[in-house]
Amino acid sequence: MGDGRIWIGLDIGGTKTEALVVDAQMGVLSRVRASTDTADPECLLAGSIQLIHRALAQANGAVSQVGGIGIGIPGLVERETGVVRLAVNLNLTAYPLGAALTAALGIPCAVENDARIATMGVYRWLNEQQPVRHVAYVSIGTGIAAGVVLDGRLYRGAHGMAGEIGHVMVEADGQLCSCGARGCLETIVAGPAIARQYAEAAGLRAPVTAETVFQAYQADDAVAQQVMRRVSQALSRALQWLIMTYDVEKVVLGGGVTAAGAAFLDPVLAELAQMRAQSALAQEMLAAHKFVVLPTDFNAGTWGAVALAQQG
Amino acid sequence: MGDGRIWIGLDIGGTKTEALVVDAQMGVLSRVRASTDTADPECLLAGSIQLIHRALAQANGAVSQVGGIGIGIPGLVERETGVVRLAVNLNLTAYPLGAALTAALGIPCAVENDARIATMGVYRWLNEQQPVRHVAYVSIGTGIAAGVVLDGRLYRGAHGMAGEIGHVMVEADGQLCSCGARGCLETIVAGPAIARQYAEAAGLRAPVTAETVFQAYQADDAVAQQVMRRVSQALSRALQWLIMTYDVEKVVLGGGVTAAGAAFLDPVLAELAQMRAQSALAQEMLAAHKFVVLPTDFNAGTWGAVALAQQG
Questions:
Q1: For the whole model, what pTM was predicted?
Q2: Using one digit for the tens of pLDDT, what is the confidence trace for B287-307?
Q3: Does one domain contain both A131 and A270?
Q4: Per the CB < 8 Å rule, is B245 touching A160?
Q5: pLDDT tens by residue, B126-159
Q6: What are the strands of the beta sheet with B250-254, ordered from one edge?
Q7: Is the CB of A157 less than 8 angstroms away from the CB of B169?
Q8: Which member of A158, A181, A247 has the closest CB to residue B162?
């Protein structure tokens, strides 16, 4: 890739779209953002093309220099064809986004699910620091999902569902989840669940955000401590499952909730330390160096999209 | 492999060793068994060579016809070098079993961990019935472990620990496990754990076997029903974890405990049906057709060893 070509990563979210342009040496040439226009597929396409042109202009680049574009989409994507099967938040159903962008721009465009693409970004980020071939990326925000690179390759599973751990049952007869089941991991560890548990335990009537809980935790609020204990117990067991099934070298935690920093992480790390203390196996498999938190200023989505573009 | 060569699979267990000789069309030429002599590495080697010669004689085969030998070992094995790093039950430490057998017989010998090799056997068995590329094999006996084939390839993980689910914590402050931790999956679902839970719940002084519990369950014994409910809850959640992490097409259950048949399986299938009833996602991911029980007369170990031999 040292041929002077430039590469574009596009992270299309339900609210915002971000474009990243890098040179052959992975140096950032430009980074631009815009609201995502989800009115209909044509608006989304036009908005994406406009943002790509804006990013290129800011990078002083020309379409003819672009080696490829990688695009991350929050939804069900056919990687091979670039067809977005279903992206509820983007108002897309069976839409050939890859082909439409390629036709409009004359540049190869590859489309992939956003969680997978973020995993590719995380994998590349880790490998800039040290060589690793087995990595799980756990994204914790409104929902929870894991993406995995196994033996150096993004692993999708038989139906593209590998790592959908948000809906694994962790508590019998627990809280009702959006999926219809009870006691899913998301009903305890996701951002809205953290807020809900705190509001319930504290007897609050007005809804709170997870951020409120983290602040209360930092201020030694007993209810927040109790909620975070419960959250971190469920999460640390999920992390153990991930490690014992995938046997990854690193588990990277990211997503909106991890941005809380110490208030979210300290209790999780304390739980893991407690598990390590119990057995030699846990000491090895749950070693502290395996758990990494993604820096909040690293956009795994756009970097992963660049990686996808370069894979073609 | 239609060249007239024959292949040998050797399943070396802590108690018995079994050898299987097949022709190029995978037809069984002979199957022989002997006690495993674990007195020292030389005895184990001599016993293995003797059994191979006996199997060949019974198959009317000659050493010169053998394309390769695959060997399964209950322990930590370096697949590439054929060195058995540690096999406690076989009294082997850092022993170059592959090289020793190759030198003695003049035949290429490949060595692999027995759980992995059984997974290869299960994978081949499944593919004789229908094409599948993502399979988990869960062996439930004295211990519990899973082996996986992902995208058609045996997956080992970064440290050869992928699928070691027996020691994942499923019950906080549960029973003390042999690994030193509390509440591991093995403390509820493994054969000895099933026996222990029944003896405790029934207030028995004399130890019982898992078989006793299964018989009591079949006879509508209330305590056995209660124990099996607990066992099947823990197991069905573990199966959900396996499916949501690996997204396999099939989960095959085998090992000594599954030989109990309906008494073991019916409550597990009932739990899974209950989970399916809760959500559309579970209905799809935990579909009944994904769960298969290995026939008790199918020796996954020797068939997997044959598959290993043919891979070279």
A1: 0.90
A2: 999 999 999 999 999 999 999
A3: yes
A4: no
A5: 999 999 999 999 999 988 999 999 999 999 999 9
A6: B153-155, B144-150, B135-140, B250-254, B291-293
A7: no
A8: A247
